[in-house]
Amino acid sequence: MYMSMQDILEQIRSLLKKKKRGRISAISRDIPQDMLKKQNSKQGNEIQSSPGQSAEVQSFSGQKSGEQNMEGREAALGSSSEKAAEGQEGQKLHGQEADARMTAQNAAGVNTVTIQAVAEDSTVEKNTAGQSTEGQNGIERAKDNMTEYRGGNVMRVIPVYNMMVLPHSYIYFQVQSFKNIAGQEIRQDDHVLLAVLKEDSFNTKDLRKEEFHSVAVEGSVTEISGDGYVVVRTGQRVKILELTQKEGEPLLLETAPLRDIEDLDREDSDRKLKEIKAELKTLVDRFRAGSIMQTMIDQYGSIQEVACILSPWLSLKNEERYQVLKEDRLSVRTKMLEQILYEYVEVTKVTSDARNQQQEDYQKLYKEQALQKQIDYLQKELDEMHPEKVSDLRKLELKIEESGMNEIAKKEASKILNRLKNEGTNGQEAGMLYDYMDFVTGLSWKKEEQKSIDLDEAEKILSEDHFGLKKVKERMIQQIAVMNLKKQQSGSILLFVGAPGTGKTSIGKSIAKALGRKYVRVSLGGVRDEADIRGHRRTYLGAMPGRIMDGIHKAGVSNPVMVLDEVDKLSSSYNGDPAAALLEVLDPEQNNTFTDHYMNVPYDLSDVLFICTANTTDSIPAPLLNRMEVIQYQGYTPREKFEIGKRHLMKKALKNVGLQPENVELSDEALESIISDYTREGGVRGLKKRLDTLCRIAAVHLVRGKGEKITVGKEDLQEYLDMNPLHHRAVEEKGRAGVVTGLAWTAVGGEILFIETLATKGEGKLTITGQLGNVMKESAQIAISLVKSMFPEKASFFKENDLHIHVPDGATPKDGPSAGVTLTVALSSLVTGQAVCPQIAMTGEVSLEGKVNPIGGLPEKLMAAERAGVKTVLIPKANVDDLRDVPEEVKDKLEIRPVENVDEALSICGIEKGKDAPSEEKSEE
Predict the structure, then answer these.
(1) Which residue in 496, 511, 532, 502 sits closest to 461, CA to CA?
(2) Positive or negative, the Cα torsion across 339, 345, 346, 348?
(3) Could you identify which of 37, 341, 589, 754 might form a hypothetical disulfide with 75, taking C-beta atoms 3.0 to 4.6 angstroms apart as the criterion?
(4) Starting at the edge strand that comes first in sequence, how are the strands of the sheet with 493-498 ordered?
(5) Catalytic residue among 272, 473, 518, 861
(6) Beta 739-746 vs 664-666: how paired, if at all?
(7) Residue 646 known to be catalytic
């Protein structure tokens, strides 16, 4: 139980006034160390010492030595003992060969040891009252299971460890602790043997000599204090000759007395004791109860007594304490104790100084914190009373506290703010520092709460502004469902790939609206500097944050929908590769600690929904493409364009020029004609331009007062749009040998093209024109080799004629692995002279084995075929699964024939092997 300092001082003063056998009781170390030890003051009587015995001293009963706090040291120094008058002489055992055999009785159910001392030929001196005791040869049973044999005394073995035990001293135990060691109820005048353990472990029911050091100290219980302490007065030292016990049997103990060698000069001893007392008095002046302690120090009668008082606080091991007890010569023992005590005093002084300095530092810190809190409170009150007078620096300081920054960012921001305060507003770097602080504190650092989103409502929002795009909408609904379940941002980075004007960028706004988030668009087209992504370092003049963090700053939230537009148009230079910088931004495993060079602190981008757009994946680096989920945007069909123009584009065009729907009447035939004759694209961007033109003409018509309504029909388009209809490639009605219709994919959608071949008299030379790329040139070489192998009888044809392969238009570069089957069929038609129907189009790559390999861009190619009037399309058999991405209206108008090899394609086109080659006259024609 803890007591206050005032209670302890009052107890000490009360005890000093009491006189009880001339002894002040010390305190066990089982009391918490941060309290002053309770003192038992007993004054007035003189100690009646036996001949040859030194003055009795009191001691502490500590289990282990270790680091103790300063309050414990104060208690140790405050412990003192006066010389006690016991009122009776100590018992003496005489005889040259006294066999002190002691037998232990174990009380039933008690985990303690009771020692019975058997002394042969021993006599007990009479006490001062003249009482005498005769020797007994029989066994006489005493009270509480304690017995004397032939005049021997009952004793208990008390194992002690890491405790300074010296002869003629007082040792103090707590009652409960002593019971645990002794084993049963304690009686005053019980005789004990304090035996020093070698290890800090023992079994009271099975004690062995090997567990103890050979030198021990006899003693007796002289007092059981009402304050809960047992006082043991030690006598002379003894040597343990025999100590054995088996469980359930009495303990056998045999000891021999050890005498101290009196080689200590009395005057020298008194002088050393006086010097030690002076050192201790100087030491206790540092403590609050110093005056009381000095009075107690004056009562110390020997250096051994001082050592016992300070035993619990001495930094000594068990073996070192035992060496002091083991020493026979008093001069050497005194020298050892003197060295130990002086070391203790010096260590205590250093520790006290360090503690006092630490307390001063703490008090200064506490005072500073208290003053700072008062200043902050007063400043807050002033800011609330006069918000218009709050300085910019104060505003920045408040923003830092309220921003929710991570520890690294908060530390950096506080450092920059302190620099700004020290430099002042007129400092050389003040502008740069202020811009940095304004940017960092303007970011949203707090995690946004994830809201549950209704899937039906989200799907409705996605369909409001966009017609079609079924695959994209399904993917976003899946994303929203996962986010509702996990309550956090999850999923991969999305990459929308498609032709211009197909709604890749605008769908981002609808996604942000469906998610209830802010929308940010970052254009990356033409970016070639890594600093555009990561930002510039602040060491450069005019440093700025990167586009990613700038977008987060503009959004004002930590979880916007960020569209990274045109990622396929990034380029690299000597300033670095921006595509490589995007690797960290678009990696969900890394972007939670994205560090912008300008900020120089990590920022969490894991809550940002990144959507990238591109027209093609060919120019995107493979590591960057691997981090994204590609969603292909197919070109719109004419029907889809019609619905988009009528539902969305026309309304936006009218709104942009300030007209109402009743001001312009656009017929369905006119809209269809605009789509088919005045635009050529996979998207609807050209359609939007044409509708904007019509609305501007209507605005002029309305302003000039020519009427409030303008009607636009199909016949008016050429006049209003001021342009001729675009020329679309269309299939011819009659085919010619050597000319075959092919299909191609472009960035603006699909297109048909004609593979033209011609044979002229020559030496077998090959000419390829039409700006074909390397891949198509290789396809032409494969087609020639394949035709030669299929028509071996035509070998002379290739030797005697030069071949010319042309793919119009010549001004348009062309390349790609999808013209092999078209080139093969065209050359086969040329060699055999059999014409192929122009309404049959085909696409696919071929191998030297004659197999037709799969291609890409099938939906766009089929839409181009349908638009050009093609009736039958040959596709690789491996591309059959891609037909699910083709609109049903396109598939309904086309006959799609999968082919596995060139022979199947030739058969469908009507080319038969073995037919005679055309005559020379026909070839010349």
Answers:
(1) 511
(2) positive
(3) 37
(4) 519-523, 561-565, 609-614, 493-498, 628-633
(5) 861
(6) unpaired
(7) no
